[in-house]
Every structure is written in C-alpha cells, then in structure tokens.
Design brief:
This protein is 45% helix and 14% strand. With 422 residues, the chain is α/β, with parallel strands linked by helices. It folds into 3 domains: 131 residues, N-utilizing Substance Protein B Homolog, Chain A, CATH 1.10.940.10; 48 residues; 204 residues, Vaccinia Virus protein VP39 (Rossmann fold, 3-Layer(aba) Sandwich). The longest helix is centred in the N-terminal third of the chain and has 21 residues. The termini are far apart. Bound molecules: S-adenosylmethionine. The site of S-adenosylmethionine has 18 residues, from helix 12 and strand 6. S-adenosylmethionine binds next to helix 12 and strand 6. This is 16S rRNA (Cytosine967-C5)-methyltransferase. One of its GO terms (molecular function) is RNA methyltransferase activity.
Length: 422
C-alpha cells in the first residue's frame, strides 16, 4: 500500500516536470505512455494528484516559499508541491512526507536534498492546512490573464479563476432518453439536456458506458449541435470532428454526417466512439480546407487555444505561453471563410471554439460578417432551453463562461455563432 502511494506520487511529479519544465500537455504525456506501468488505481491517483497540484500550484508555492531560501531543482520543487497540496487537503502527513523524501532520494542528482524536503514538509504539515483556505484563489499567468481582464473585467476574471480552482463535474450526453439516463445514474438533468454528476468513479465502469448509452461531454460543448438543429436524414458536413462528441450528437439526431479531421489518431477515437455507441458517420481523415461541395448545414468546431477548458485541464496555462495563438487565430479565419464558401444559399453554419479569448470567437464572427456581406448571424437559433438572453453578444453569437451556473457547478468556456447565407 505504502509503495503504491510512492509510485503514484512519483508519477505525479514526473507529469508536473513534463508540463511545467517541458511545456507538454498532460494528455500528450499520458498518451505517450507515462503511466503505462502503473496499476489502474495508481494511474488514477497519479492523474488526480497532478491535476490537483496544478490547480493549487500558486497556493502551494506561497506556502513553500516561506521555508525555502532558494529554489531547488524543478523535480524537488514538484515533489514538494504535490506533497503540500496533499497535506493541505487533509492527507496523513507520515506517508506523504516519506513518499516525497523517497522520490527525491531515489534520484542521484537530488538525493542530497532529502533532509531539506523532510524539514520543509514537516513545517508545511504543521501550519499549511490551516493557512490554505486563507490564501488567494490561484491566478492565471499574466499572458492569459491580461487579455481576459480586458475582455471581461477584474471581477469576472476572479469568478472565472474560482471556477478553474473548483474543477468540473462530469457531464454526460444521452444517446436517447436523457430523463431515463438521469434516473439510472442519478445526478441532475440540466435545462440544456446534459446529465450532470457531482461524484463519478471510473467512467468506463459506469452503467451504460459499454452499451454506448451516453458519452462524456461538457454541458457547454453540447450546445453547438443543439443550435444547429440537425434533422432526420439531413446531410451535414462536420469540420474538425475529433474526438467526436459532436459527431455522436449529430448521428444520434439521425443526420447523415460527413465528419472531417486531419489528425488520424484522434480520428481513430471518433471511430471507437461511434462503434461503442452504435452510431454511424462517414469519417474522412483530411484537411478541412480542401473539402468541396455545397451544404445546407455545416458545423465548424475550429482548433483553438482551448482556454475554455481549464477547469478540466489545469495544465494548459502552465504548459503554454500563448505563442501559438496567432497562428490558430489565422487558421480559424481561413476555415470560417472556407466553410461559408461551402454553404448553399439559405444554408446554416455553426462556428464554435472552446476558447475564452474574444479573438477566437466574437472577433472572428464580427470580421467574417464584414468580409461576407451575404451572411447574417441568426440570433434566434441561439435561443434554446437553458440559454440566457444576456449570454448573447453584440455581433449575434453566444458567449459561455466557466463562472456561469456557479451554483450548479459551472460550464466550460465556449463561443458559438450560427451564420446563415442569404
Ligand atoms: C476543438 S477540436 C474538435 C473537437 C470535436 N469537434 C468534438 O466535439 O469532439 C479541433 C480539431 O480540429 C482538428 N484540426 C486542426 N486543423 C485541421 C484541419 N486543417 N483540417 C481538419 N481538422 C483540423 C484537430 O485535429 C482537432 O481534432
């Protein structure tokens, strides 16, 4: 048991080293096999510890800096951070401190710091748990915080950071009857149709998963397809489809979907998801920008900064620095232009991004409406159950933020607009 704790904690430290030191996303590090040698329970613990440490990193550093005269190497710092977060969440000091000492001691380059780690963590164990709640809610790094403060103001920024710190519940989309899904799993049936679970175990072990009766999808991410309103047998072009949450929604509504994504391994996940849920779609591994044809309905879920998903992916602000965003913004505009060109007269296009940055949402649509005078924003399409009127933006899109539904567990940040060709 004690050994299990050390292995999971060592892996959590490795994950943090990769995110903070190498700028890699947790999903990439895990997909590359970082946790392969662990048992399922250890794997889950390692991931949970890494996520919780990333959420509470600023608080952990504030507590630790009182006891450190200079910064130790990153691995030692990360071992201290993981242990500090665990201690402040009420973990038993003995096992946590011993694990951190053992992790640092096992590496030749850091073994001399065992004594320091032990001494610092004993002090954190004494005073840290009481001080934890009085520390401020961790802030986003400056490169991301500044544009968001100018978009939403300081108070909203703090509410968003609170939502990031609180993490996210598990939202499910039902393949069929959502009321029946809520009755079988418990939780809450949200007004927008998702089933929300506060406490969930291993997803693949939950009733109905293997049968394909539902899939995991944040409540905000489920709205673009509802706004597109797919019809039975309707031909729909879905651009940027992987891993397939929206493909499944479209197919479950009876639409004939052509789902395009240029990432073959992510597209494999769409294939697996469709197989599990016994749904069908035409899958195309290819560039959205070379798609041709003339469509009455298109969904474009463009690649973006993913800054709307920080509640579930707290690694993002630590792994990224915003330097890739300019290129993404340019790609989004090119994709939006191409999707508009593929629309039939009278056709509708839903454009969305899981981003909090207006440059990837409001500004993209405002600029596209200026470039394409034959296209209008359809504001009425956004008015679906559960959507509040003041979420609708000036240019005619929908801005969703993590601080919305604060009393119900929040939602991902998203931007959605429905454009109709004259
Ligand atoms: C936001 S994700 C899509 C999420 C997906 N719609 C869902 O609901 O599960 C963006 C996707 O765009 C894909 N992508 C990026 N550039 C592309 C391109 N030029 N052509 C097609 N797909 C692209 C990425 O591989 C990624 O899977």
């Amino acid at each position: 048991m004690a050994q299990t704790g050390v292995q999971a904690r060592r892996s959590a430290v490795y994950l943090l080293d990769q995110v903070i030191g190498e700028g890699r996303l947790l999903s990439e590090v895990i997909a590359a096999g970082a946790l392969e040698r662990l048992q399922p329970a250890e794997r889950a613990t390692a991931q949970r510890l890494a996520l919780e440490t990333l959420r509470g990193l600023e608080r952990a550093d504030r507590l630790l800096q009182k006891h450190l005269q200079k910064y130790p190497p990153l691995t030692v710092r990360n071992a201290l951070r993981v242990a500090t977060v665990e201690l402040c969440q009420g973990g038993a000091a003995h096992g946590i401190v011993n694990s951190a000492v053992s992790i640092v001691g096992a590496n030749k380059r850091t073994a001399t710091m065992k004594g320091l780690v032990n001494a610092v963590l004993r002090k954190v164990a004494d005073a840290g748990p009481e001080a934890w709640d009085s520390l401020r809610i961790p802030r986003l790094p400056k490169w991301l915080r500044e544009p968001l403060v100018s978009a939403y103001g300081g108070d909203v920024m703090q509410a968003i950071e609170k939502a990031h710190f609180d993490g996210a519940p598990l939202d499910l989309t039902a393949k069929g009857d959502k009321g029946a899904l809520q009755r079988s799993l418990g939780g809450t049936l949200l007004e927008t149709g998702s089933v929300r679970l506060e406490e969930a175990g291993q997803v693949s072990m939950m009733p109905g998963f293997k049968k394909g009766s539902w899939w995991v999808q944040d409540a905000a991410a489920a709205l673009p397809v509802q706004i597109l309103k797919p019809q039975q047998e309707e031909a729909i072009l879905e651009l940027c489809a992987a891993p397939g949450g929206k493909t499944m929604q479209l197919a479950a509504a009876g639409a004939k979907v052509r789902a395009v994504d240029n990432n073959a391994s992510r597209m494999e996940r769409v294939r697996e998801n469709l197989k599990r849920t016994k749904l069908e779609a035409e899958l195309v591994v290819g560039d959205a920008l070379v798609e041709t044809g003339s469509w009455g309905a298109i969904l474009l879920d463009a690649p973006c900064s993913a800054t709307g998903t920080i509640r579930r992916h707290p690694d993002l602000p630590h792994a990224k620095d915003g330097s890739e965003f300019g290129e993404l913004i340019h790609l989004q505009a090119t994709m939006l232009d191409h999707a508009i060109d593929l629309l039939k007269p009278g056709g509708r296009l839903v454009y969305c991004t899981c981003s909090l940055l207006p440059d990837e949402g409001e500004c993209q649509v405002e600029d596209a409406l200026t470039r394409h005078t034959n296209v209008k924003a359809d504001v009425d399409a956004l008015r679906i159950p559960g959507v509040e009127e003041d979420w609708i933006t000036e240019e005619g899109g929908l801005r969703l933020r993590p601080d919305y539904w604060a009393d119900k567990g929040g939602m991902d940040g998203f931007y959605i607009a429905c454009l109709v060709k004259a």
